[in-house]
Amino acid sequence: MISVNNVTLAYGKRVLFDEVNINFTKGNCYGIIGANGAGKSTFLKIISGEIEPNKGTIDITPGERMAVLNQNQFAFDEYSVLHTVMMGHKKMWTIMHERDAIYAKEDFSEADGIKAGELEIEFGEMGGYTAESDAATLLSELGVKDELHQLLMKDISANLKVRVLLAQALFGNPDILLLDEPTNNLDVETISWLENFLAEYENIVLVVSHDRHFLDAVCTHVADVDRSKIKIYTGNYSFWYESSQLAARQQSDKNKKMEEKRKDLLDFIARFSANASKSKQATSRKKALEKLVIEEIQPSNRKYPGIIFKQDREVGNEILKVEGLSKSIDGKALFSKINFDIQKNQKIAFLSRDPLALTTFFEVINAKIKADAGSYEWGTTITTAYLPNDNKEFFEGSNLNLMDWLRQYVPPTVKDVDEDFLRGFLGKMLFSGDEILKKTSVLSGGEKVRCMLSKMMLQNPNVLILDEPTNHLDLESIISFNDSMTAFQGIVLLTTHDHQFMQTVANRIIEITPNGMIDKLMAYDEYLEDARVKEQRKELYGDY
Fold first, then answer.
1. Where are any strands of DSSP class E within 457-501?
2. Is residue 49 a contact partner of residue 37, using CB atoms and an 8 Å limit?
3. In angstroms, rounded to a whole number, what is the distance separating the alpha carbons of residues 61 and 2?
4. What is the helix (H) or strand (E) element at residue 168, kind and residue range?
5. Less packed terminus of the chain by CB within 10 Å, N or C?
6. pLDDT by residue (tens digit) across 51-74?
7. Full-model pTM
8. Contact 92, 127 (CB under 8 A)
9. Helix (H, G, I), strand (E, B) or coil at 105
């Protein structure tokens, strides 16, 4: 068990946590949620001991081992992939080297023999004799091939390093597992494997993630970081979100009788409790929900941005025609023989095992770079707005305030652009009061994305092109963005690692590969389960 007692942490006048008191118990997975800057990652660092609070203590049951997902991809560059995983069990790794050092001594004494024997027993009890094979199995399940296991970490790609560090955290069945954004840079197959792994995990897991589908799949509880406090709620993220929204509506409905409100809440709990049987975490979550006291359900204090796109005109019959597009970089084929055209009412999710291929494809159709072969043509009625994966070109060298920055992008057709007009767009993105005078040079990643959305909304486009639109955004902004794209009447072209965003927005899937493409009129989940698609992917990717 982890017991958090009166924990307080402040940086100057900024108070992140104020006398937080909570417990985390075995058998549960806790999703740590909160707005950007609320202190989610900092809280994990307090639990791990990396950050010392100003006041209070973290008490862990004696003898329990904690593992933390390492965020530094360069920390183990001089170690082999296999040994990097094994180093996740620090005590076992230390004992192994202490034992080997004794055996390597030239003047091996009787005392050395006794000590080595003691270490052998301890090493065996920790599973040391199967450690290499266990680590290799874990790596293979995470998509790191056997031939890479003996390579140095510095000699493998960044996306593989992420998997190795995840394997390191999971290795050896730790009693407490701390995971900060574990799905970043993982493909859908690996995320699915991790969901199954954590759903069957019997110890304590604390996870920070902006992936709602992942949180729903693995979490039995939500720990909400808000207003310098942390409160634990039973259920996964969707249960927390929908129950808090229901509680907020009930709070504002002063005329509704208390008995009716109570009945609504009980019906809501019963519905979610029944649905829990479909989850990987079915048994524990269903039992927890059935014991839930309705007084635990409270409205959220979160603010949700107003992301609203309007079209100046509807798209015509000719939208985008792509013929034979191919592109390589440094001799590596990113995509080839891409052919498709777009019809009205289509929202298309683009997939690839190589994120660079997707970004490059979007850059090509936005005339940022040239393809090696092939062509594309936009219809004459089309106005596009593009949210790039990397937005630094819009902010580099700029020291404008937000209002002056946004003023640059007002279309020439818009008249009477006064302060109130610009404030309206910035206000929708939660920039209020004097915040609109903030300099763009000091914006966080999430604030820059919200500025980009303000810029895009000004354009009134009928086609939106979104490259990883949820990057840097908090869950509230992601939900608002997701709802906006579901409601948008125009065309959407997107790629995202957010499963729920993809599933709820897209009605067509195009997967681009070095050897061709797959094009299906279906939802994302259906695409992932389609047997014919799986065969096509094997043929197109080969040993990729």
1. 463-467, 491-495
2. no
3. 7
4. helix 158-170
5. C
6. 999 999 999 999 999 999 998 989
7. 0.85
8. yes
9. coil
